[in-house]
Amino acid sequence: MVTSIAPSSSTPTSAPVQRASSATSSASTRRLSGSSSIACCTMMASTAIDGTGKRYLDRPYTPHVERILVTGAATWTGAGLVRRLSRHADTTIIGIDDIKTHIPAVFHQTRLDTLEFANRVVDLAPTTVIHLQTVHRATSTIPIATQTLLGALSRLSTVRRLIIRSDLAAHGTSPRLPSVLATETRSTGDSAPYESALRDMEASAGSFTEERPDITVTILRFAPIFGEAIDNALSRFLTRRVVPTILGYDPRLQFLHEDDAVRVLEHALAHPIPGTFDVAADGQTYLSRTLRLGRRIPRPLPERCFRRIVRTSELPASGLPEHLVRLFRHGRVVDPRARTEILGFRPDRNCRETVLAGYGRSS
């Protein structure tokens, strides 16, 4: 027999109400606690300090907004990169250079080897920095500007990626170098000023990587950029109707098309891989073949005469810096496999196609 037990009239009816009230109070406490935590995190982000007790971040960091700083934004490559990056709605682009330029981004005109530049970088608090070389910077200031930038970045907690443009000239030029250079191969002989400056810059970047392992540092060594639109010493020299050459030398060369130079920077931004990568178009060519493809007339000269001509007014606005003079004597070819296998980038144009495009030809 089942006995039914009725609720006792003495059971307090307010107990469920008390329990509900307690649960409501607990939930409110959790919400308040969560709000306090968020406020606390925001306050910590805005008052973070480095090891010296100095503030290194003056505003809360919002991780979903990308702030990209492009130094050397007045260069052809820098301006092209800014135009491509400006298409992304969730990205803020800031450009800095020595000279005024018109780009679809916030722009600051300042020298990159000054304290003003370092302070501006700290104020901007970027998440990514792409360090290119400015148009009118003297060779001696390249490592100084890089050290100034790295000193500023060491004070920031916002930076996650750093991309530095270097040059294959960092390998040096010498007849004693291997026929195909690996990434770590360096000339042991005397170096042109530009080559030495690049090595100093890369050494500073290597030290910075050890100090800040939380930042992905990618160094891209560009082959000489060749194209119709870019206005650099190499393109001006090779597109002359009559091109001086060094008598008895036909160097092997590699180039990088101007559009591929912009593409590889954008690729490195989207795929942050630490390390140093030689970036050149697939294949190689000889200087004589380059001039034939461009339907140019070579003018072989003794080296002394060649050097005198490329440094005088006989070639207005087409003079060659020392590292390119050496390139047209000894040549340089690198192994680009790491560019494809590790970095995951392949240029759209091979070396022959790059030369044809540089001369405005399709075949």
Plain-language structure description:
By secondary structure, the protein is of the alpha/beta class. Helix 3 runs parallel beside helix 4 (142-153) and helix 4 (142-153) runs parallel beside helix 5. Mean pLDDT is 83; it is low at 1-63. It contains twelve helices and 13 strands.
Poorly predicted ranges: 1-63
Outline the biggest β-sheet. 7 strands, parallel
Helix content: 25-40%
Strand content is 15-25%
Number of strands: 13
Mean pLDDT across all residues, rounded? 83
- Terminal CA distance reads 103 Å
Shape: globular
Q: Characterize the quaternary organization of these chains.
A: single chain
The helix/strand order is HEHEEHEHEHEEHEEEHEEHEHHHH
Radius of gyration: 29 Å
Number of helices: 12
Protein structure class: alpha/beta
Biggest sheet: strand arrangement: 3-2-1-4-5-6-11
